[in-house]
Amino acid sequence: MKETLAGLILAVFTFIVSTSAQERPPEPDGYRMEDYRAPVPATLAGARVLTTAEAEAIWRAKAAVFIDVMPRAPKPQNLPEGTVWRDKPRPNIPGSMWLPDTGYGKLAAATEDYLRRGLVRATTGNRAALVVVYCQADCWMSWNAAKRILAYGYSNVAWYPEGTDGWERAGLAVAQSQPEPRTGEETALPR
What we know:
34% helix; globular
């Protein structure tokens, strides 16, 4: 009876693992250009793919800079005059730099410059520094951004595909953050 139950559990586990692996799309040659909230590949050529346990170990050791690329909610058009608009804070991995909107498939020149400048600030110009890129689970934004960072010549890029969803599922603390300022914006708020 115990052997039958163990065999059944193993069969169900094997089915779940093989089904999840089959649902993962292959890496595209370029950047993902649409439908950003969808299953992501299991790999990213040139980058290390992290589990939550690995991301946590790197974070606890303070061995990397963490870059959150979750998009920022835009200010609504046509707000009545005098309406106070406050950005929605983003709960991210404590100590992360939030560089919103930098994970789209195609970036405007100003957004690409914002990403490059943010990386220089985060790494103090060291392209060999470990950079961990994340967003949320099943979010192509982090995959695109990590791929782009590799193309900029950073040699030690890690992609954390579970992002804040995986982090919170593991019971790890998040911190409310604000985006890094863009050129011409106020100075950065404490992270």
